[in-house]
Amino acid sequence: MPLTEFKTFKKTSNRLFVYDHKSEKLLVKCYYAQPAEKRRDKELFIMRYWHNAGYRVPEIHDIKIPSIDVPYIVMNFIDGISLQHFLSTDDNSLETKLETLSRFFKNINGRHDRAIRNNEGNLIHFDPSTGNVICADNDFLFIDFEDARKKRSVLNAAAIETATLCKWIVRDMGIRYADNVLSCLVSVYGNRKLLNLIVKQTAGVPFQFFHRRRDRNKKLANPREVTKYDIADALAKLL
Q: FRET partner for 37 with CA separation of 20 to 30 A, picked from 101, 152, 172, 196?
């Protein structure tokens, strides 16, 4: 069966294709940027690690597609919408969005607790965004597990994942909802040490005048921009 390109809003060196195989709709991710094979193998390893640990990821299929001459992964096509789309649309009320975020934050809190307790760095998502979370079957599936990590402790990496997700969430909903989002996070996320670390990693580093001036300039250039200071400052008021 022919491959049909699947367009995404995210700019990437990879390409996605929909592939109908024996009446089953599959997604094929092709890797073009080098080292392509190494990137594919790393993502396969992380996806299998999450699956074996009990976390939902797209099912991987061992299917050969002769027409593709670059490294690729074949996986289930997930019928769902991205968390980004869910939060950005006006079709859902603020109450519905916050209820969903409460379940989402509980989801990542449980994963982070296990990762920190067992020192399982592979359970941290290193490219976190609301575009990489699919809402399906009343659950959340993470996608896009390419690993470009720096050497960090699991606690540090989990704090960065949480802060980055919050930044994307506030960006999707609008900066006026930052307090709502962070209040939701604090109400369900049990690791206060990690939440305080988010504040410390931003507002506690030296040369705050310089960093905050650069932050202000960024927001002047783009008033809709949500920065790490928006997250850290709103979170600091709640802790």
A: 152
pTM beyond 0.90, yes or no: yes
Give whole-number Cα distances, 116 to 65, 149, 190, in Å: 39, 16, 13
Question: Which residue has 């950005």 as its token pair?
Answer: 88
What residue ranges in 117-205 does DSSP mark as E strands? 133-136, 139-142
* pLDDT one-digit tens code per residue, 27-80: 999 999 999 999 999 999 999 999 999 999 999 999 999 999 999 999 999 989
Specify whether 47 is located in the same domain as 142: no
Pair 49, 164 in one domain: no
- Give 118-171 pLDDT, tens digit per residue: 999 999 999 999 999 999 988 999 999 977 666 789 999 999 999 999 999 999
For 97, the domain range is: 81-236
- Are residue 52 and residue 110 in the same domain, yes or no? no
Let me know whether 63 and 87 are in one domain.
Answer: no
C-alpha pair distances (Å), 22 with each of 19, 26, 63, 77: 10, 10, 12, 14
